[in-house]
Amino acid sequence: MKWIGVLSLVALSECLVTIPLIKIKSMRENLRRKDLLKDYLEKHPYRLFYKFYKQSNSEATYEPMRNYLDLYYVGNISIGTPPQEFRVIFDTGSADLWVPSIYCSSKACTTHNVFDPRLSSTFRSTRQHIRLVYGSGAMSGFLGYDNVQIGSLVDVSQAFGLSQKESNKSFEYGTFDGILGLAYPNIAIQGTTPVFDNLWKQGLIPQNVFAFYLSSNNEEGSMVLFGGVDPSYYRGDLKWVPVTQRGFWQISMDSISMNRKIIACNGGCQAIVDTGTSLLIGPNDFISQILKIINAQPTSNGESVVDCSSVDTLPDIIFTISGVKYPVPASAYIQKDNLDICYSNFEGMAVDSDLWILGDVFLRLYFTVFDRANDRIGLAPVAK
Q: 238 and 214 share a domain?
C-alpha cells in the first residue's frame, strides 16, 4: 500500500476491533527525492513560525500549518503540564490523536519529539493498549489522558495514544511526529472522545465547525480554523453538501467529467473529503481510464509520468457535487518535480473499493468547512 490508510486495527485490552480508515499518502516522494527532502528540511526550521492573524471577521481559533512538498500539512500542538510540543497532521480521515513516547523503541521515534509523561503533572495513564495499522505504517502503544493545547485552546483531559512502536520508513522520514484526527467519534478508539468533540463539549469554541485553507507549492499561509469561518480565505459563497455517512466526512458526488463527457462516477458515487490524503484516489478501473486519457505512463515504482507539455493542453477535470461543478486544472492533477519530471496526481485504491478520496490536490483549490452541527461540508474557491 502506498499511502497511509485503508485499514486501522484498534486493540482494546484483549479485544481487537477493526475500523476502516482512509489516510494520508505515503512518503514515497520523500524517499524518491531524499536528497531534496534533506535540503528542504535544513532550510526550514523545526518550529513553525507563529504570526498574528487578523480575526475581525471570525471568532475562530487560527492554527497555522506548514506545507511539506505538497505531501501533507503540519501544525503544532502541545501536550501536558508544562507543555511538550509536537508536529501533527490535522487529518479529517481519522479520529484519534497519537504522538511518539519515551517508551518507543523504534527508529522512527529517535527522529521525532517524544512525550515524557513523567514530566507532566496532569498526565493520567491507563492500561488500555492500542494498535493503529495504516497502509504505510503502524503504531502500537497505550492510551493516556492529558491537556492538549491548540493555539489558545486548552482541551482538558484529552485521550491520546502514546506510541511504543512505530513501523515503516514513512514514520521515520516523516516531518510530522503524530496525527490528530478530525473525523466523527464513531471511528475513534472505543470509549474515547476525539479532540474536536472535546473542544465543543468543553465550550472552547463558539461554533461546532472547523475549516481548512491549504496553500500550494510549499507556500506558507496554510491554516486550520476551529470554531468559525473566515470569508477572506475564499471567493463567492460556500456551497453546502450533506454528509451521507457519519464516520469519515463522506459525501455524494454526481460525476467526474472532461470536455463535457463523463469519464467516471457515472450515475453518482461516494467520496471522502480527506485533508490527510495528498492525491486524488479512486477505484482502480476508473483511475486507469483517467490515466489513459491524460496519456500517463506507469513507472517501476507504481507512479505514472506525464509529458510536462501536456499541462498547458489538457483540459480541466470537473468534479460535480450536489449540482455544482468543481474544476481541477491540469496544473493541479499533474505535478512537476525539481528534476522536471511530471507525475499524475491520480492514484488507484490500494484495496477494492468504490469510494473516491478528495485529497489535498482538490482541497488546495477549495476552502473547506466541516460543519458538525449540521453534518455537512461547505466548499468555495480559495481566494487568489
A: no
Identify whether residues 204 and 245 lie together within a single domain: no
Residue at 190: amino acid letter: Q
Residue 77 shares a structural domain with residue 119: yes
Q: What is the pTM of this model?
A: 0.87
272 contacts 336 by C-beta, under 8 angstroms: no
Query: Which residue segment(s) compose the domain that 288 sits in?
Result: 232-381
Of the three residues 207, 229, 251, the one that is the final residue of a domain is 229
Does one domain contain both 102 and 218?
Answer: yes
Active site residue 35: no
Same domain as 212, residue 63: yes
- In sequence order, what are the beta bridge partners of 64? 223
Q: How many CA atoms lie within 13 A of 156 on its CB side?
A: 4
Q: Which three cell numbers stand for residue 297?
A: 505512463
User: C-alpha 77: how far from its chain's center?
Assistant: 16
- 220: amino acid identity, one letter: E
Last residue of a domain, one of 229, 264, 287: 229
Q: Rounded distance, CA 129 to CA 323, Å? A: 45
Query: pLDDT averaged over consecutive 10-residue blocks of the chain (384 residues)?
Result: 35 32 43 44 36 50 92 95 97 95 94 97 96 78 98 97 88 90 95 98 98 87 96 97 97 97 97 95 96 93 91 97 98 89 92 91 98 98 92
- C-beta of residue 88 within 8 angstroms of C-beta of residue 96: no
Q: Are 255 and 262 in contact (CB under 8 A)?
A: yes
Q: Tell me which of 70, 91, 197, 230 is the catalytic residue.
A: 91
CA torsion sign, 342 to 348 to 349 to 353? positive
Catalytic residue at 375? no
Whole-angstrom distance, CA of residue 326 vs CA of residue 329 = 10
Based on the number of CB atoms within 10 Å of its own CB, is 43 exposed (0-12), middle (13-18) or buried (19 or more)?
exposed
The active-site residue out of 96, 230, 254, 274 is 274
Phi and psi torsions of 187, nearest 5°: -110, 10
Same domain, 71 and 219: yes
Contacts of 354 (CB under 8 A, 6+ apart): 269, 270, 283
Residues 224, 278, single domain; the answer is no
**Domain harbouring 364, CATH code:** 2.40.70.10
Q: Which grid coordinates are listed for 180?
A: 490528530
Task: Let me know whether 204 and 274 are in one domain.
Answer: no
